[in-house]
Design brief:
The complex is a heterodimer.
Chain A lengths: L1 E7 L3 E8 L2 E9 L4 H16 L6 E7 L11 E2 L2 H12 L5 E5 L4 E6 L5 E6 L8 H10 L7 H5 L13 H13 L4 H22 L6 E4 L6 H11 L3 E2 L7 H10 L3
Helix pairs in contact in A: 2-8, 3-5, 3-6, 6-7
Chain B lengths: L12 H17 L8 E4 L6 H5 L3 E3 L1 H10 L3 H10 L8 H12 L12 E5 L5 H13 L3 E4 L10 H22 L5 H23 L10 H14 L3 H20 L9 E6 L7 H9 L3 E6 L17 H10 L7 H15 L3 E7 L3 H4 L2 H12 L3 E6 L9 H19 L1
Parallel strand pairs in B: 1-2, 1-3, 3-4, 5-6, 5-7, 7-8
Helix pairs in contact in B: 1-9, 1-10, 3-5, 4-5, 7-12, 8-10, 13-15
The chains are: A alpha/beta, B alpha/beta.
C-alpha cells in the first residue's frame, strides 16, 4: 500500500510517498498563488518521477496553510501533528521539534509514541520566520540559501534589537548605511530570529532530542544560533523541509 | 404548504433577553427627559446602591462588548488612536473614549453620565479611563479602591474598603440630594444575591452531558446580571432561563449536535468572532461548556450576607476573580475543570485585558500538571479585530482538537 502526504506551505509545496513504512520519494516546488493547483502540481510531478499513478495511492492527507484547499485529499490535518508524525518516522527517539517555516514558527513536544503533547506557535508576527529571513536577504542582496554560509563568517555579530520585521529591516538598512559588515549583520539577524523561536521552545519546556524541521532548517547559520540559544544540539536531516509531507503520508496510512 | 420547522436547538429565551436589554438602553437614553440620573460604572463595580437610589447604571464595558459584537470596534479603536491614545490601551477604553466624541457605535453612544463610579477590582486601566471621561463630561468621579488579595482578605483591607463603601453612599446622597432608604437597600441586596444565585444555577446546567447551552450563550445571557442585578427583572428572567435549560436537558437537546468533547474557556470573549469560533469548535463536535469570565458575576457570592448586604459588599467586591492571586485563580479553574468534566482548556490571551492575561502561562502550567488536559492559547483581542489572525487561530484550534482526539486512542 502506498500513501501520500501533501504539505502546502506559504512559500513551498511539498509531497511525499511512503510504501510499507519506507519512504519512496519526496518533492519540493514553489507554492505560488493557487493552493489547489500547487497541490495538484506537486502530487502529479512526484507520481511522474516515481512512475506511479493516482490509482496506486491508497490515501492522501493534506497539511500546511493550504491544507483545506486540497479537495482530492482524504483528510486535512494540521502541520503540527504532521511534523510530529514525520519526525517520529524519520527518527523515532525525537521528543521535541522546532519547525521554522515560511510564515510561522513552532515548537512541538512529543511523547514516546510520536504523539503531540503540547505546542506553541508564533503570534501573528513574522519575526523569527522564514519570511523574516527572506526580507533581510533581499535588503542585504544575498541569496536566501547563502545566508547561513555568509553569516557563519561573522567576526563580530551585529545586534538587532527590533522585534518587528518591518522595524528590523529599517534597522538593518541603517547598519548597511553605517557600512557594517554584511557577515556580521546576517549573524545578528540569525540571532534575533533564533531568540524569537527560543521563546516558543521555552514556553513548552522543550526536551531533547530535538529535531529542527521546515525550510529554515537548511540555513546553517540560523540552526547554529538556535543551538546556542537553546544550549542543545539540533538534529537536522536532509529531509527537514519535507518532514511535514512525510508525516502527512504516515498519518494517511493510519486513516 | 407545510409550516417552517421550528429549530429546537435555538434558545427561546434569547428574544426576551434582547427585549429586556433594549428597554434598559431606551430607559437609560431617555433618563434626562424623565428626571433620572445616570451613573457610568465599571463592570465589577458595586451597582446595588445605585439601584437602591433610583440612579440608572450604565456600563461602558457592556457597551464595548456591543461594539465588538457589532464589528464596529476597528473604526472606533482607530479613532481613539487618531486622538492620540496608544494601540496598547484596552480596546474597551479606546472604543468608549472615541464613542463619547463621535457618538458612534450600535446605539449612537451612551447617555451622558451625571456621575462616574469606578471600582478598580477588575483592572487599573479603569482609573485613568474614568478620569478621562470625568474631564470630558465634567462630572464627579467616585473611585472605590480595592487592593489585590494575593493570599487572603486581611483585616486592614476589610476596614479600608468598608470605609469607602460609606463614602460611596455619602457621595450618592450628595449627588441625588436624597438619603439612602435602607429598607430599599436591603431589598435590592436580596434581589442581587438571588440573581447571582440563579446565574450560577444557569451556568451549572452545562455540567449536564450533552450541554444544553454553551459559553457562547453565557456570553450573551451575561449582560443581564452585569447591568440589571438588584432588579426583579433579572430574577424573573433567569428563573425562566433555568426552566428552559432544564427542559432542554429532559428532552436531550444539546447546543452542539453530537457533543463529544467538552472545553473550558478562559478570559473575555472575542466579541467579533463568536460565531466563527463557535462553528470552528462545533465542527470538531466540541462544546465550550463553561468559562471563567461569566462565572465572575457569581463567583464572590460566598462572601455576601444577604441580610447585611452593605457590610458584606466590601469583601464580595474585593475578592472577585480578577482581584485574587494566580494560585487561587488556578484553584478556581481546577474546580471548574472537575465540575464541568472538560477535555481541554482554551485560553484567550487578550491583548486588551492585562490583569486577565497576565497569569495565564502559570495557570496553564498548573492545569497541565494537575490534570494533564491539553491547553490551547489563542492570541487575540476582545474588540479590536486587528489583533486577530484567522488562519493562525484556525491552525491552533485544529491542532488542539487533533491532540484531544489523539488522546482517546
Amino acid at each position: 500500500m502506498i500513501y501520500a502526504g501533501i504539505d502546502i506551505g506559504s512559500i513551498t509545496a511539498k509531497a511525499a510517498l511512503i510504501k510499507d513504512d519506507h519512504l519512496l520519494d519526496t518533492i519540493v516546488l514553489p507554492t505560488g498563488y493557487h493552493h489547489l493547483n500547487a497541490g495538484i502540481r506537486v502530487f502529479d510531478t512526484l507520481l511522474q518521477q516515481t512512475g506511479l499513478d493516482r490509482r496506486d495511492i491508497s490515501a492522501v492527507v493534506s497539511t500546511g496553510y493550504g491544507r483545506a484547499s486540497i479537495d482530492f485529499a482524504d483528510k486535512a490535518m494540521t502541520e503540527i501533528l504532521c511534523h510530529g508524525a514525520g519526525a517520529h518516522f524519520l527518527h523515532p527517539g525525537i521528543r521535541g521539534i522546532i519547525d521554522v517555516g515560511g510564515q510561522d514558527s513552532k515548537a512541538v513536544l512529543l511523547d514516546d509514541q510520536g504523539r503531540v503533547e503540547n505546542f506553541a506557535m508564533n503570534d501573528k508576527c513574522a519575526a523569527g520566520t522564514g519570511r523574516f529571513l527572506e526580507v533581510m536577504a533581499r535588503a542585504l542582496e544575498v541569496e536566501l540559501d547563502q545566508m547561513g554560509e555568509v553569516g557563519r563568517q561573522a567576526d563580530n555579530p551585529s545586534k538587532i534589537s527590533s522585534i518587528c520585521t518591518v522595524f528590523a529591516e529599517s534597522e538593518v538598512i541603517s547598519m548597511i548605511a553605517r557600512q557594517e559588515k554584511r557577515e556580521n549583520i546576517i549573524a545578528g539577524i540569525h540571532d534575533a530570529a533564533a531568540a524569537r523561536v527560543a521563546i516558543l521552545a521555552a514556553k513548552i519546556r522543550i526536551r531533547g532530542p530535538v529535531m529542527m524541521t521546515g525550510g529554515v532548517a537548511k540555513n546553517s547559520g540560523m540552526a547554529a544560533a538556535l543551538e546556542k540559544r537553546l544550549k542543545m544540539s539540533l538534529i537536522i536531516g536532509s529531509l527537514s523541509q519535507e518532514t511535514g509531507a512525510i508525516g502527512a503520508a504516515v498519518l494517511a496510512s493510519d486513516l | 404548504m407545510s409550516e417552517k420547522p421550528v429549530d429546537k436547538t435555538k434558545i427561546r429565551s434569547a428574544k426576551k433577553m434582547r427585549d429586556l436589554m433594549t428597554t434598559y438602553y431606551l430607559d437609560a437614553l431617555s433618563a434626562g427627559q424623565n428626571n433620572k440620573q445616570v451613573a457610568w460604572i465599571t463592570s465589577g463595580g458595586p451597582v446595588e446602591p445605585l439601584v437602591a437610589m433610583d440612579i440608572i447604571p450604565v456600563y461602558p464595558e457592556n457597551h464595548g462588548a456591543m461594539i465588538g459584537s457589532a464589528k464596529m470596534g476597528e473604526d472606533l479603536c482607530a479613532k481613539a488612536e487618531d486622538m492620540g491614545y496608544s494601540s496598547d490601551l484596552c480596546s474597551y477604553a479606546r472604543t468608549d473614549i472615541a464613542c463619547a466624541v463621535v457618538k458612534g457605535g450600535p446605539i449612537g453612544g451612551l447617555p451622558k453620565p451625571d456621575m462616574l463610579i469606578c471600582c478598580n477590582n477588575i483592572c487599573g486601566t479603569v482609573l485613568k479611563w474614568y478620569e478621562v471621561q470625568a474631564r470630558f463630561y465634567n462630572v464627579p468621579l467616585f473611585i472605590l479602591d480595592t487592593p489585590v488579595c494575593h493570599t487572603g482578605y486581611a483585616p486592614e483591607i476589610a476596614e479600608y474598603v468598608r470605609t469607602q463603601v460609606d463614602e460611596y453612599i455619602v457621595f450618592l446622597e450628595n449627588m441625588t440630594k436624597r438619603k439612602l432608604d435602607h429598607d430599599k437597600m436591603t431589598q435590592v441586596g436580596k434581589l442581587s444575591f438571588e440573581a447571582q444565585h440563579l446565574w450560577q444555577k444557569v451556568l451549572n446546567t452545562t455540567a449536564h452531558k450533552p450541554s444544553p447551552m454553551s459559553a457562547f450563550d453565557a456570553f450573551f445571557f451575561l449582560a443581564l446580571i452585569v447591568t440589571l442585578r438588584g432588579t426583579p427583572a433579572v430574577v424573573d428572567f433567569y428563573k425562566e432561563l433555568i426552566a428552559e435549560m432544564e427542559q432542554r436537558i429532559t428532552e436531550g437537546i444539546s447546543v452542539v449536535p453530537n457533543e463529544k468533547y467538552r472545553l473550558l474557556w478562559d478570559n473575555l470573549p472575542v466579541w467579533y468572532r463568536l460565531k466563527w469560533l463557535s462553528a470552528s469548535f462545533s465542527a470538531h463536535n466540541a462544546c465550550l461548556v463553561a468559562d471563567t469570565y461569566t462565572s465572575a458575576w457569581c463567583g464572590a457570592i460566598k462572601y455576601i450576607d444577604e441580610n447585611n448586604f452593605l457590610d458584606s459588599l466590601a469583601q464580595a467586591y474585593t475578592r472577585i476573580y480578577l482581584n485574587i492571586g494566580v494560585d487561587q485563580m488556578a484553584e478556581e479553574m481546577l474546580d471548574m475543570i472537575r465540575f464541568y468534566d472538560v477535555d481541554g482548556l482554551v485560553m484567550h490571551s487578550n491583548r486588551s485585558c492585562k490583569p486577565y492575561s497576565f497569569g495565564q502561562m502559570d495557570i496553564m502550567n498548573i492545569v497541565r500538571k494537575q490534570t494533564g488536559i491539553p491547553v490551547l492559547m489563542i492570541e487575540a483581542d476582545m474588540v479590536d479585530p486587528r489583533s486577530f489572525s484567522q488562519s493562525q487561530v484556525e491552525t491552533r484550534i485544529d491542532a488542539f482538537m487533533e491532540i484531544i482526539k489523539q488522546r482517546e486512542k
